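Reviewer 2 asked us to include a model.

Predict the structure of this chain.
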Amino acid sequence: MKDKNNKTEKLLILSGVIDLGLGLIKIFVGIISGSYALIVDGIHSLTDLVTDIMVWGFNRVGIADPDEDHPYGHARFETFGTLILGCLLLLLAAFLVYDTTARLLTIESYTTPTWPALLAAVLSIATKEWLYQITYKLGLETRSKLLQANAWHHRTDAISSIMVLIGVGCAMLGVPWLELLAAIGVAIMIAIVGWSLAKSSIAELVDTALSDSYVKDIRNKIVNVEGVRGVHSIRTRQMGADAHVDIHLQVDSSISVSEGHHIGEWVTKSLLDNFIEVTDVIFHIDAEDDELYGENSLDDLAPLRREVREALTNAWDSILDNDKVIKMNLHYLENKIQIEIFLKQHDKDLLPQLIKATDHLPWLENITLWNDG
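Predicted model (structure tokens):
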């Protein structure tokens, strides 16, 4: 992790230096060559420097370990940074469209650019495409959406320089409005990228679930774990580069609590081993599909053990001696209770008597006697 963080910081420093140099070069050459589109492209490069600084800051916060105030970690700070980056791109695009449109309306005062603008555009294309390649590669390696977003910002700068190159070339050939049209095209590209980043960040910040296909893959992996009888209520959310999963697992209602929990641990291991994005799994063990009975069951819950024991003792006062009861298991299914009673010994006619004496208990489903003596 430390090595990846060092790589990220070194790349961001390199990117910042290049963006500063390119921005100043394009603005200077744009001024002396009379190319408005190149000046706009230079401003675009300087905004990359600002975003490099933002990426560096939010990345340092995002990789911090969980603490008392942020038990799930700080990955959402990186997402917030991506949202700000997207909004800045949208604002920049709006400014460029407004300014370029104003210049189109006064095309008669347009100055034809000269050949240095072409050289500056070619330099920008080559440099920004190279930055895109190395930044996106590191973004995939570190699973950083913010780095990947910044990589695409580099590519939009490269593509915008291509449009500037074409626009300046056409202007030098006698079609001046094409350079300004190229500037508007750059703005539209920036707006598309900005909207994409902002939209995905907002979706994560409001806990939008992962894609249906991804959840389907998770479900398929879960049901293949031995002991899992069903899975429902799968809830997912994104936390930066990580995915968190909450699941309800249905197991055999007669197994022990510890075995049910152990099955859940195997499900967790299976998901962590097979989905690199999944870093946190919370499971709830169900003895039945509680989606079928859970909605209304809380209004009329079956009683807990102490109340059950008291009701049975009162009902069986003259039938069964409590000293003969070794153990009592309660199975809660469909908001009813199935009771297993282990006795030292019992007569075959005892069970009908116990059932008859408890007919008035609405939560009692059935009784099973076991001879443990």
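The longest helix spans residues 2-33. The first strand starts at residue 230 and ends at 239. We have added this to the supplementary material.
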